[in-house]
């Protein structure tokens, strides 16, 4: 039996989910919901209706799992609890410090509605979180490190675009290779923010703009750039379009720990991602976990979950025989 | 409340489990069981009794999880089903082609006894299996590759030692760097056994032995060496002891898949291990999963399980609040 999926919100992430649903033979895209005028929205899937978000409650009986593709700053804290009262839902909420609050709100709503919800799914939080947990369970006396990049940070790119005289900008987060090598050798170094990542900015400035002022405003921006070694390169709009139109990302979770007499043996666990498309990969993770949400809901396992609560077998189309014979 | 652990079998793996138990504050080693004369066995933990395996049934009420540290060839197929009738058990059975049979035998026994069992736990099968499953669920239309090494294969080392004129031997499995690079680039190549790994053998020969004959017998040995490019280096016993006394291992599970229009984006997931001590790491994984077995048993979730059936949250000492605040 197919799992009927709804997509709520159709930006980069919504399109990534749409792409992934097509690659999963047990998934069926039922509708795309938008807060924009549905008539103005062109989606890639043929014969799938685009519906106004305000009409979503008419779709209660048709959707097994609703994948909410909103932003973490203001959309998801409102949307997910509201929708979890009537739908099994999943989101990619990534505001790490506010996760406990979001979890409590969604859990209350989902339990009220007898629904299953899963929050903070994607790659970080998501696959990286899983790997932090697995590695810390296996090497409890070790130390872990998360490196991001090389990849585009959309938040940092947006921050640069708000500076006067900037037409467009792209910011790459770059892990410091030497720091990663020290971690991989098991040195367990204490690393400052500056020692772990650098930031590379590509900026298209207005004609006649004071580039030195723009550069200074970028590198001194608190929280975003001041704590890092930041480089700023001015380029033309043509070069921006040609070389910086994609949204690659990735990174590594590395944990090292010791074992044996006198802790003489170093054990290194590394999980890494190299993604040509950040939103398409996040979409793929959401879709795999939508399968688990559907199964947990059918078993009556309601309330808010995270990736930590999902047994891996619930993510896959393969049955027990195939898993034992070919994957274990 | 502590989890009371018994170790059944005290070879390299049993010692690895013992080392790991000490590093987990909720774990308590209750006894080590041996088929040898208990009086002849010296273990590292003080005040822990060494007990004859034949007396194990007297310990039924004292042990929460029994970690069975036997060999996969002949020990575990007998031991695990027998012990699963009376104990919650976990083993590292790694004979991939026979896993479905072993699973069925252990499942029947555990259900009979109302116990929880988990088989084929370690790093491969184990952590590598998990990563094959997670990656295939996220990138269903991709292809995965498992590379092992560089590390000591004890089975291959033993096979060399059985050759006439060989005093000692150590065999390293080495992944082919070029093949790994092709995989990481997303080429999804078809690779033969020979293209994925080479085998490096270090051999101590008897004085006057025909080294060329020994070399030939090694490199032509069916299944073990014939399908690979194998090098044989003769060394002295001193060099063997000095340079080859450890049991390092590791490897990588890499899955690549595509996303986006015309599959134009490549996504790469890689999980890799670099282990100074293979048995100590395997022991660490067994101990983390022993925690989950104990919890599943308390919830009445009986029968045979694999790593695929365990929600990650069951592996960790951290509670929900800590997981949401610090690990997600």
Would you kindly provide a written description of the structure presented here, covering whatever features stand out?
2 copies of one chain form a homodimer. With about 325 residues, chain A is of the alpha/beta class. Chain A is built from 11 helices and 14 strands. Chain A has helices at about 10-20, 75-85, 100-115, 125-140, 155-160, 175-185, 195, 210-220, 235-245, 280-300, 320-325; strands at about 5-10, 25-35, 50, 65-70, 90, 115-120, 145-150, 150, 165-175, 195-205, 230-235, 250-260, 265-275, 305. Chain A has a 7-stranded parallel sheet with strand order 3-2-1-4-5-6-14, sandwiched between helices. In chain A, strands 8-9-10-11 form a 4-stranded mixed sheet. A 3-stranded antiparallel sheet of chain A has the order 7-12-13, with helices on both faces. In chain A, α1 (about 10-20) packs across α10 (about 280-300) and α2 packs parallel to α3. The interface between A and B is large, with 70 and 70 residues. β13 (about 265-275) of chain A pairs antiparallel with β13 of chain B, so a sheet runs across the interface.
């Amino acid at each position: 039996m197919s799992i009927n999926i709804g997509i709520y919100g159709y930006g980069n992430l919504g399109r990534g989910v749409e792409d992934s649903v097509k690659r999963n033979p047990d998934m069926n895209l039922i509708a795309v919901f938008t807060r924009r005028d549905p008539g103005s929205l062109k989606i890639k899937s043929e014969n799938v209706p685009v519906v106004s978000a305000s009409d979503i409650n008419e779709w209660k009986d048709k959707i097994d799992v609703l994948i909410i593709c909103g932003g973490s700053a203001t959309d998801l804290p409102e949307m997910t609890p509201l929708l979890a009262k009537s739908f099994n839902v999943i989101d990619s909420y990534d505001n790490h410090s506010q996760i406990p609050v979001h979890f409590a709100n969604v859990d209350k709503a989902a339990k009220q509605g007898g629904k299953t919800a899963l929050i903070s799914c994607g790659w970080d939080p998501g696959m990286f979180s899983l790997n932090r947990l697995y590695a810390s369970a296996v090497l409890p006396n070790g130390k872990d490190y998360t490196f991001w990049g090389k990849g585009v940070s959309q938040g940092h790119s947006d921050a640069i675009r708000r500076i006067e005289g900037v037409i467009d900008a792209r910011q790459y987060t770059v892990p410091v290779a030497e720091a990663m090598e020290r971690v991989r050798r098991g040195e367990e170094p204490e690393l400052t923010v500056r020692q772990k990542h650098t930031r590379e900015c590509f900026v298209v400035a207005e004609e006649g703009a004071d580039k030195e002022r723009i550069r200074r405003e970028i590198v001194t921006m608190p929280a975003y750039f001041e704590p890092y070694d930041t480089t700023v390169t001015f380029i033309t709009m043509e070069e921006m379009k040609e070389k910086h139109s994609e949204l690659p990302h990735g990174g590594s979770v590395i944990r090292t720990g010791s074992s044996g007499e006198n802790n003489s043996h170093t054990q290194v666990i590394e999980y890494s991602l190299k993604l040509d498309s950040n939103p398409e990969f996040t979409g793929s993770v959401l879709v795999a976990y939508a399968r688990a949400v559907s199964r947990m809901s059918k078993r009556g396992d309601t309330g808010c979950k995270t990736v930590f609560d999902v047994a891996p077998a619930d993510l896959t189309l393969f049955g027990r025989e195939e898993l034992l014979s070919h994957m274990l």
